[in-house]
Write a structure and sequence with these properties.
The protein is an alpha/beta fold. Helices cover 37% and strands 25% of the residues. Belongs to the thioredoxin family.
Length: 106
């Protein structure tokens, strides 16, 4: 499964009401570190299909979702389980580190 793009309007449905854990990536087109982790998140989305859903939120187009989560810098990653944040981290990381963080959290 490819990553899912969420908007301010679809954030609750895609993230908080999901029946599987969700990794949310708050990112922007102009953000270098965001572009660095993008391919890794796409790969993890396919590899972990059924176990976790990866949702991307463009902070420039969807400022309400980012503001509601208190995002001050990007990339900002949050893991939701049963509608609640169970873990978060900021900044870019290699694929292995992201995968380890996700597995430990869910």
């Amino acid at each position: 499964m490819a990553t899912v793009a969420a908007t301010d309007a679809t954030f609750d449905a895609e993230v908080k009401q999901s029946d599987v854990p969700v990794v949310v990536d708050f990112w922007a087109e102009w953000c270098g570190p965001c572009k660095q982790i993008g391919p890794a998140l796409e790969e993890l989305s396919a590899e972990m299909e059924g176990k976790v859903k990866i949702v991307k939120v463009d902070v420039d187009s969807n400022p309400q979702a980012a503001a509601a989560m208190g995002v001050r810098g990007i990339p900002a990653l949050f893991i939701f389980k049963d509608g609640q944040v169970i873990s978060n981290r900021a900044g870019a990381a290699p694929k292995a580190a992201l995968q380890s963080w996700i597995n430990e959290s869910i």
